Amino acid sequence: MSVNYDVVIAGCGAAGLYAALNLPAELNILILCKRELPLCNSMLAQGGIAGVYNSPSDSIQFHQNDTLVAGSFKNNVEAVHTLVSEAAKDLEKIIGMGVEFDKNPDGSYHRTLEGGHSHHRIFHRADSTGKEITTTLLENVRGLSNVTIMENTFMCSAKKTSTGYSAFLKDADDNYFTVNCHFMILATGGIGRVYQYTTNSAIATGDGITFAYEMGAKIKNLSYVQFHPTAFNNRATRECFLISEAVRGEGAYLLNCHKERFMQNYDKRLELAPRDVVSHAIILESRKQNSTEFYLDISYKDSEFLKKRFPMIYINLLEQGWDLTKEPVPIFPCQHYLMGGVDVDGNSETTLPNLYACGECSHTGVHGSNRLASNSLLEALVFSRRAAENIVSKLDGVPKNFEEAEFDANLGGEHIPAGIRTETRKIMQNSYFVIPDKEAAAEGVKRVEEMLRDLLSGKYVIDADYVLAKSIVTVAYIILNEVIL
């Protein structure tokens, strides 16, 4: 079975949904969701969305400079300018769609402060901003008659054709089929599951990056991995609960194993230094104290204020046996975000024509080597809208027909051996966590390359286990090769 669409969007987070909302109603659009709709990194975003919008004391120049400083000036300056100067346009648009941000008693929007920001410019909905934005976008997309959403549908492979792209899919009932399109948008999120411990959801396995890489698109700066300094440290689960940057923005202290503040020994910005600086400081302090016991403490603040400002964090920590309002909470750095990815231009188009990448799987260059807090949701909106606008500009030249690529599920093959993903995650955790270990990376990449060669040999059945393992190993292979250069 095969079906034709004008646009296929892989991913149902903020970037994928917003792209669909900015495409014309006459286009036939398919959105692919490999698990349930709410399971995406956009839903997990806590702190907020940064932007200069009706902000008399702030400016896009301030926002641009903060972004460049956080990214160690390794950013694409043109892309950064696009991000900060178009923020107001997309903030206003999503507010018009029904997104509700917290307000002050006088009706003005409440803006909070986060690490690396010089001004209060973070719009938020308590501490569940990503959920508010993504849920609202999804409600709007569901109202579009030209958009089909397929849940629990794996993209197993993708190929370029003479008329666009073909995607090989496997649905929840184990049926395989092909969809063809003139335009494809990859909005598949991050790579968190390449690590043993991550704040990312289970879907973050780098699939879109792998598909683009296999088709020949340029991948850039995949080793630009961000480790969030304040993940809840229960030492038990692979998916670590994030304690938002905004908690430090409201005055939380970082404490070492002796319950002493230590950031003054590493950076004059103290707890409000950018994420990479704070993560590095924790690792260095860990080595100095020979301990991985670290804490985040905001218990000196009014308890009712904390419960209202951080309701989700408060409840989740309470369920783990910790009361944010009464005691320091254990934290430690954890893989959080990817700044590199599928390299794109200012319209989110990859080096392959009519193939776009948006959100965390893309490399727009806006983040440099370290993302400024709350710029991720903004990037997802601004650059997915620009992708949609670029597609619209090309519609007059679209062919009338659809070529279909050939795929083989290799159903007679064997299932992949157990343990590939687990072994890869261990290699990544040991060789590239906060401070790279080039010697371990050089050794680890040999084993990763060996596993990748085996997976690509063609003898395994193309099922979900195979796709996820191949994505994780491919991403690890690219990252480690960058690290050892």
Can you give a write-up of this model?
Helix content is 35%, strand content 18%. It is built from 15 helices and 19 strands. The chain has helices spanning 14-21, 41-44, 60-70, 77-85, 87-97, 129-142, 207-215, 245-249, 275-289, 303-309, 311-319, 376-393, 420-431, 438-455, 464-484; strands at 2-10, 29-32, 49-50, 111-112, 122-123, 147-150, 154-160, 165-170, 176-186, 219-220, 225-232, 253-255, 294-297, 329-338, 341-343, 355-357, 362-363, 432-433, 435-436. The strands form 5 sheets. Strands 1, 2, 6, 7, 8, 9 and 16 form a 7-stranded mixed β-sheet that branches. It has a 4-stranded antiparallel β-sheet with strand order 11-14-13-12, covered by helices on one side. A 3-stranded antiparallel β-sheet has the order 3-5-4. A hairpin with a 5-residue loop joins strand 8 (165-170) and strand 9.
